[in-house]
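Review the following:
>
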Amino acid sequence: MKLTSFVALFGAALALPSAPLSSRACTNPTVRKEWRNATVTDRLAYLSAAVCITKSPSRLGIHPNATLQDDFSFVHALLSDSLTSIYIHTVPAFLPWHRYFLRVYEDALHACGYAGPALYWDFVHDSPSPSRSPVWDPTTGFGGNGAGTESNGGFAPRVVDGPFKDWRPLYWNAGVNPHGLARNWIPKGSEGEPEMAGGKYSAEIMRGVFEETTYAGFRAKLEDPHNHVHGGVGGGLQRGEGGPGDLGANTASPNDPIFFLLHGEVDRLWWLWQQQGEGRTGMYDGVDQNGRAVELDDVLPMMGLAENGVVRDYMDVNSPGLCYTYE
């Protein structure tokens, strides 16, 4: 079943009861930590809740076999596809939309029993040797590269260790295509040094990103290293030998739960940039995919996964609906 066959259900998805975010005054913000700085207890609790999301009932009800994790992938796919005429990449909404998306996921983790803050993966720190990052630990991390020898339906080898080795995403690239969670790390020397295209999101690259003084310039430059992390881990859509991995495609990347740590780092980098100039917390400019000048009152759609948001409510991490900071 292709995503186009879901368009008739699009309106129904919007009308579904949504899961509201908690509203509270931000008097005691939570502190989001880098994965390696969280306690082992918190890491294991986070992973247990993330597994719970892969088994929780769908909120959207689009497909009878869908889980809540599939919902996250489905919504991300809809908003990355021309079917909806809404884009969440290569446009100003990239940063506030994903900030809100992360918050929706964090609330889902809490509903699954996790009491801690959202965590992030500092891929810039790990860029000299990404494969050595503790995020890939099979016990206290997300498992390693795809390594299964059996067929995975044309995808990259499935992940065979860690808490998600039995996870079978339902959606792929605008259609229903169940498969084992697939990763296809780009090897050393093929697109950058070292493996996983680490040279494309190094500290040196990031210094150039932070030289930008306008929101539009910063967002555009930040998306490029972010793209290389996606491709470096997932392998992209056209990896050739071994097939593509989930994180490498915009319309499938939330299939891999590491997506939310990757975007936690993207959000942290935006937060850091916001601290480095007067008025940057409210800075939002540029044009959308139709050439229209963006505004702070623009809607951030969640397609029934949660209530729709508004950009201005997701510019400042100290706003009542967010209320967090980074260590």
Notes: The first helix runs from residue 10 to 15. DSSP finds eight helices and five strands in the chain.
